[in-house]
Amino acid sequence: MSGDGHLLPIASNADVVAVRRQVRALAVDVGLSLVDQTKVVTAASELARNALVYAGGGRASIEIVENGVRKGLRLSFIDEGPGIPDLALALTDGWTTGSGLGLGLGGSRRLVDEFDLISAPGKGTTVTVTKWAR
Amino acid sequence: MERVPILKLGDILIISIQVDLEDQSVLALQEDLADKVVSTGARGVIIDITAVEIVDSFIGRMLATIAATSRMLDAETVVVGMRPAVAITLVELGLSLGGVRTALNLEKGVALLDHTRSAPR
Questions:
Q1: Domain A6-132 -> CATH class
Q2: Residue A93 forms contact with B (CB below 8 Å)
Q3: ipTM of this complex prediction, to 2 decimal places
Q4: Given B22, B83, B95, which is nearest A17 (Cβ)?
């Protein structure tokens, strides 16, 4: 199911740029269309920034996945931050505890095919998203 | 940190974003541009994003903030050169950039500003 994994730190704004670049390169490798590349890189940017802003940093895991003949890209954003007390609320467009637009989580979910959010107060947050080549 | 150059052509300021910008560079650009609008008395601002591969909510907010700030300083902003994939992604993300004027390329952006300024105010 899983291919080569890439683990990247998210500790600075420069790291967010590095995550975008790596996701872009692998999205091209798995054959995502230009629009799907753009969507998955945008989602990665939102989620990497979330880890930096709300948890003070974390890490990104990027892997190529296969499902029969289809290839895809699976990204996990893992932090040990304060966690999210109310997941439904956090996914609501426009709701934020920070200074952003509140589009990061909900928006990212719309840009990918699969979206999984695991979090609890004090336990950190892991967001895993998958984008499949068509 | 990268600093984006701001070019002046007549009474228009032109910014062409050529690299993947860190958030800090984006914030610096907003401040540099507001200063430059005032110091030059520019009446128009063109932001060229032809080379920009993704616009996430942070960059999107930057575009909206620059447009709103410039308007307060008596300059109109036009964003030019947005890639089709970027437009599709932005709408799906939930950012329609309602307050930001766009044109397909630099030439049309300049024409739009000229037209706006020659209209009766």
A1: alpha beta
A2: yes
A3: 0.90
A4: B22
pLDDT tens digits for A16-54?
999 999 999 999 999 999 999 999 999 999 999 999 999
The answer to whether residue B121 sits within a structural domain is no
Which residue type is seen at B116? T
Q: B20 with A21: CB under 8 angstroms?
A: yes
User: Does B1 fall in a domain?
Assistant: no
Residue B39 lies in a domain: yes
CATH of the domain at B32: 3.30.750.24
Q: What pTM does this model have?
A: 0.92
Pull the structure tokens for residue B119.
């209209």
Q: Is A38 within 8 Å of chain B by CB?
A: yes
Rounded to a whole number of angstroms, the distance from the CA of A26 to the nearest CA of chain B is 15
Within a domain: B54? yes
Per-residue model confidence as pLDDT tens digits over B83-119: 999 999 999 998 888 889 999 999 999 999 998 877 6
Whether A111 and B24 lie within 8 Å, measured CB to CB: no
In chain A, where are the structural domains located? 6-132
Report yes or no: B95 at the A interface, CB cutoff 8 Å: yes
Q: Do B93 and A110 touch (CB under 8 A)?
A: yes
d(CA A30, CA A114) in angstroms, rounded, equals 16
Q: Which candidate, B86, B90, B48, B89, places its Cα nearest to that of B66?
A: B48
